[in-house]
Structure formats: structure tokens, C-alpha cells
Amino acid sequence: QVQLMESGGGLVQPGGSLRLSCAASGSTFSPWAMGWYRQAPGKERELVTGLLSSEGLPHYADAVKGRFTLSRDSAKRTIHLQMNSLKSEDTAVYYCNFKELRPGRTLDFWGQGTQVTVSS
After folding, report:
1. pLDDT tens per residue, range 61-102
2. What separation in angstroms does the CA of 61 have from each of 8, 11, 19, 24?
């Protein structure tokens, strides 16, 4: 069973920074994808950023481009999300996601979520 261990999050003032990390264990399947989603109160969960094991180049939602940076530990299924210039609209529960990209189907695994609150 795949397990995702999230860390980071918290309360920060507008313009501040936070770093989230997520480590996946229990899976040796490849290829895979990994990233972060977020869900604000009253809104649907949305993709923030993600990367594929085969490419390694992150993709970003337009709302976070230029402010958020996703990185990956070499040879590990661990990702880090550096969030700079945070805005109040970034407030949400952030969920780590790991996907096993199996032929004909994708298996999704989720972390428990970590709260990010941007407020003065």
C-alpha cells in the first residue's frame, strides 16, 4: 500500500513563504507522477503542480506560476513545494498526490492534507 508522508504548511502573512514536502513509500512501480492539489473552502480540489517520473519537469497551474517551485529529490519519490509571494487566495488544504501510471489505468493515492493559511 502506498503511503504519503506530508510535512510543512501553517500560517504565514501575505508575501511570505512556506515549504511543503511529501515522501511516497510502498510503491516500486514506474512510471509514476507526483504533485500537489489544493482545496479551498467551498471550492473543488484543483491541481497546483506536478511532475512525471520520466520527465522531471514540473507543470504549474497559471495561478502559481512564477511563485511556486516544485523540486524532486534525486532517485527518490520525494517532492518539495517552495511557495513564495503567498497570497490570501492560496489559502487551502494542500494534498500530496501520487499516481501509478499503469497500462490502461491510473492508480491515485492521497496524503492526509496539510493546511496553508495566508493571512495578516
Report:
1. 999 999 999 999 877 899 999 999 999 999 999 999 999 999
2. 20, 22, 17, 22
